[in-house]
Amino acid sequence: FWPKQVGGTFSGTGGADTGAAAEELYEQGVREFSIGDYKAAAGSWDGCLRLNPEHEKARLGIRRLKLSGG
Predict the structure, then answer these.
(1) Rg, Å, the chain Cα set
(2) How far is 46 from 59, CA to CA, in rounded Å?
(3) d(C-alpha 39, C-alpha 68), whole Å
(4) Alpha-carbon span 39 to 29, nearest angstrom
(5) What percent of the chain has pLDDT over 90?
């Protein structure tokens, strides 16, 4: 298994750069959600979880979308 390079970092390595990229995707999802772009928010949060499967806030955001029918 060779991790895939994503924007100068490698996904699946769990490094600090990956954590920062995951947090950036989470924050992007929050902004998208706040303007009603639920599809984009789901995509951002999904990307966050691919980089950091333990990101609880992204997981909660996706759960919130599912419960609201978004």
Answers:
(1) 12
(2) 8
(3) 13
(4) 9
(5) 71
